[in-house]
């Protein structure tokens, strides 16, 4: 897909995502904005129809629903039900792929998504199917021991059909990730656990994501793959960027209008 089309998808997705959060009066907008570019990149530049995707940081569900809407899996009508009583488009992705096309597992209790992805990648190998499994995890996910168990499991089973992307925005629910539990350096640690690891300098920039994926593709090893993507919480809305409070806050009317104006002027 050419750069202009991708840029337009990003602008449309930003507007949709802000609308969703505003209408629902829901929080986690900063977390949704942090990984939006990665999700757009995966769906529109990277994954085939057969590939599977798991959003381990399920609290950014609105970002996933938005991209699935642009991708044609969630209708505009269904998207309007986000956060409403009785909807399947809840604050976290729902359990079971019969509920929302493209959502395989219920996620959001941190530390579970990568285990699910590794199990799916292994079963894919058993069944000799050809698809890849992509999993986006947060830096907060990496506080969880189960994430590191999944990393060991994936390396042990040589799951080179598994691609993990860390949405490394340096913030999590309770503060700066470095202050909650210091986990750096991700690259060296995950390499030591048996993965091929590449860093994306700016995970909110499609060109940098392109470079990182090109680099990971160069290595045809039997190791699972990981991209450590440096991202910004709240990316695309300057007053939200790198601010912890936007993990939680819903927008008021003025904040919503300011955000929409900024997105439109940035993309004019
Ligand atoms: Mg984070």
What's this entry about, in short?
By secondary structure, the protein is an alpha/beta fold. 44% of the residues lie in helices and 12% in strands.
Topology:
Layout: H1 3-24, H2 29-46, E1 52-55, H3 61-71, H4 76-79, H5 113-126, E2 133-138, H6 145-156, E3 162-168, E4 171-172, E5 175-176, H7 177-180, H8 186-192, E6 196-200, H9 206-218, E7 225-230, H10 253-266
Parallel strand pairs: 1-2, 2-3, 3-7, 6-7
Antiparallel strand pairs: 4-5
Helix pairs in contact: 1-2, 1-3, 1-10, 2-3, 5-6
The protein binds magnesium ion (MG).
Summary keywords:
Rossmann fold, 268 residues, two-stranded antiparallel ribbon, binds magnesium ion, 12% strand, 5-stranded parallel beta sheet, alpha/beta, globular
Structural account:
- The chain is of the alpha/beta class.
- The chain has one domain: Rossmann fold (3-Layer(aba) Sandwich), CATH 3.40.50.970.
- It is built from ten helices and seven strands.
- The protein has helices at 3-24, 29-46, 61-71, 76-79, 113-126, 145-156, 177-180, 186-192, 206-218, 253-266; strands at residues 52-55, 133-138, 162-168, 171-172, 175-176, 196-200, 225-230.
- The strands form two sheets. The protein has a five-stranded parallel beta sheet, sandwiched between helices. Strands 4-5 form a two-stranded antiparallel sheet.
- Helix 1 runs antiparallel to helix 10 (253-266).
- The longest helix is centred in the N-terminal third of the chain and has 22 residues, at 3-24.
- The model has no long low-confidence stretch (mean pLDDT 95).
- The structure holds magnesium ion.
